[in-house]
Amino acid sequence: MADFRIRHTRKMGVFMRLDSKKKRQVNVAGYLFILPAMCFFCFYVLYPIIFVAVNSLYSWSTLKNMDFIGLMNYADLFRDKVFFKTVVNSLKWIAVTVPVQACLGFLLAYVIEERLGRGKRGSNLSKGVFRTLLFIPVVTSVTVVGIVWSKIFQPYQGTLGYYLNSLFGLSSTINVLGNSRGAIYGVMAANIWEWTGWSMLMYIGGISQIPEDLKEAARIDGASTWQEIRHIYLPSLASVHKSLLMLGIIGSLQTYALISVMTKGGPNHASEMPGTYIFQRGFTNVQMGYACAISVLILAFALILTFIQVKFLGSGNFMKKEES
Amino acid sequence: MKKLICSLLALTMALSLAACGSSGSGTAGSAAASGSAAASSGSATTLTLWTWSPITRTAQKMISAFETDNPDITIDYTNYNYNPEYLEALSAAAASDNLPDIMGLQPGSLTQTYKDYLIDLGPYVSKDWGSDWTSHYDNVTASQLQLGNASGDDSYYILPIETQVIAIEYNKSLFQQLGITAPTTYSDLVKDAKALRDGGYAPLFFGGADGWQHVNLFLMCLSQLDTKIFDECQQGTQPWTNDTIIKAMDNYMKLWKDGVIQDGALSSTSYNDGTDLFLAGQAGMMALGSWWPQEFTGDDVTDAVSNWVYDYFYLPAISDGCTASQPIGGIDFGYGITKNCKNPDAAWKALSSFASGSGAQQIANDMNNHLSYAGITPDISAMSDTVSSRAGAKAAVDEFNRTAKDIEGGLMNQRISQPTIETAVQEALQGLAGGEYTSQQAAQHIQDAQAALK
């Protein structure tokens, strides 16, 4: 028999209705706790997105001279070769930096966690030292990273050219960042150096969650190192792989500072990425409406990539031990 | 009880967000600096000035001179790097209607972008300097005062402060050491470049990662053929694909192919890759300009600067039918007064000082660049003892004054009024130097951008 009882309870001024079939409790405290984050999200994320989306329908340089032009910016965008170059560069960036950082990160994590002074006294100290050293590039200012790597690649009296010349007799004026084919890869090298430590840290966390008895069982069964990695470590770290992939995709589309410092998107847009192109169009060429349109399309591109990944690979929730 | 405490904590955190919206202080590079503050307390006025030029040490002297003459006016000065910090700061401040009282601007597109926020300086300058006030400027500076103004718009949005001329700077001491001299012919230039390379030095160090370097060097090549065609192409009366532009591009490429420019130039920057080497005596030449002698008035300088081993020449004729490069330049920057300013009279006093008064004299003494207002020259006796006692003082001032004479003699315009055209020219020249474009294709790239303006 359905039994409805209404009980008024004065706790924080909230009335609770108890239903035998469903209980519903409004957690006011919970909502208040997430209120600051929601306010932050609305003011600093949602509002700018809406602002940019609306203003992409205008031709403007400042807010005082805005002309409504509808979808003209988008029409021009689909005829813009430089925009497509930035999309291609983004895909190259994702295809190269994400797997390389993941592979190197896993390798470093495996060596540090599983191989470094295994069972020996002081192994924890050496693990801590190596983790810290390899994480330092992650916390270094990206501008500093860009300047240092620019000096390394500098064709005239640069570090790389000096050592290639003195060790291998190659030309000392190696031109990476000024070469339209090589510039983007030079910047990728700096990016990989900077962010591999982050991947390493994610894998360290994931490796720590692999049950010891699983690894023990594999060793007892006579599995080689490669077999251990292939059949125990890599499958167990699936959620980390997916997380790094998602973060890598989003991070790649947001790339700006490294390109700006090292090549400014040149030579002649060869290393242009969406972030630098948006800046050039918006601030240098004062075509704010066009820059807004580029931003909207890149956001849509990122959402599509993320949706594809979540749909086919799962969400990669790092804290979950089991993936559906 | 627990829930009450938790709820109160959450409410406190939510309310604390309201304290996050206050503006930051006007420190260098901060885009959150507060804008107009021409408040008067009693008879004292504070004016805010945002700019990237002149450099900080010169700007401080310029402001100090003005404040000494006007003790009731204080300048709250913020220095930015031009790109991207200053451009970002202006854009954000304009959106929040928080621009400073006085802002630095380049003539043309940057001024036109913000003209709705600026007052017309015409009445101020006419009243103080007379109706023929534009006669104080050289031909190109005068022509750039209203660059980009719409038809019928007679306002003067900026007052020019500095005018420059571009040239090839070279290290005399290094040339002497290698037994070479400043070239007067193209074959001399190529020989000098080879001698520098063989000696392990950079020949003409070119910052190919900087778009402005490409434009400057290309204009030097173009001026050898025609000094008017650049303006005509910008105005749309001549196509960019005309024969003169193509030939200038071919000549520009000769500098690359004949080894005049150092290897790997496309990924080098002028500041600081090039200037570091030039100051260290590791590069023979650089495409710089009349702002170079400001190195001499710095606090801690190299021996080469202290002895002022530098001088300049104009590019010799590169091919048949060419003359040597002509002096090219124009307004480097000017200042405008914004509509935000609550005391425009005080702001005008500041501008007048910076352009032609005691502030301007400080700029001249630092040799930061030439004052647009003619006739203001460096005073060695007013320089610090450290600077005036250096061995190269006379040589540095002499070079600076010679470039002033070149400006007085008439300049070819250096400025591109539309930012999309400027970007297109830079892209075309980078593509040309990088081998992606032929001269024809490079010219067409610019012409496509010009056509898109219509």
Give an overview of the whole structure.
The complex is a heterodimer of chains A (324) and B (454). Chain A is mainly α. Chain A starts with a strand and ends in an 11-residue tail after the last helix. The relative contact order of chain A is 0.12. Chain A is globular and about 75 Å long. Chain A contains 13 helices and 4 strands. Chain A folds into 2 domains: 52 residues, no CATH class; 229 residues, MetI-like (MetI-like fold). The longest helix of chain A is centred in the N-terminal third of the chain and has 35 residues. Chain A is 66% helix and 6% strand. In chain A, α1 packs across α13, α4 packs antiparallel against α7 and α10 packs antiparallel against α13. In chain A, the strands form 2 sheets. A two-stranded antiparallel ribbon of chain A has the order 1-2. In chain A, strands 3-4 form a two-stranded antiparallel sheet. In chain A, a hairpin with a 2-residue loop joins β1 and β2. In chain B, α2 runs antiparallel to α15 and α18 packs antiparallel against α19. Chain B starts with a helix and ends with a helix. Chain B contains 19 helices and 11 strands. The longest helix of chain B is centred in the C-terminal third of the chain and has 16 residues. By secondary structure, chain B is an alpha/beta fold. Chain B has 2 domains: 195 residues, D-Maltodextrin-Binding Protein, domain 2 (3-Layer(aba) Sandwich), CATH 3.40.190.10; 207 residues, D-Maltodextrin-Binding Protein, domain 2 (3-Layer(aba) Sandwich), CATH 3.40.190.10. Chain B is 44% helix and 14% strand. In chain B, strands 1, 2, 3, 4, 5, 6, 7, 8, 9, 10 and 11 form an 11-stranded mixed β-sheet that branches. Chains A and B meet through α1 and α12 of A and α1, α3 and α18 of B.
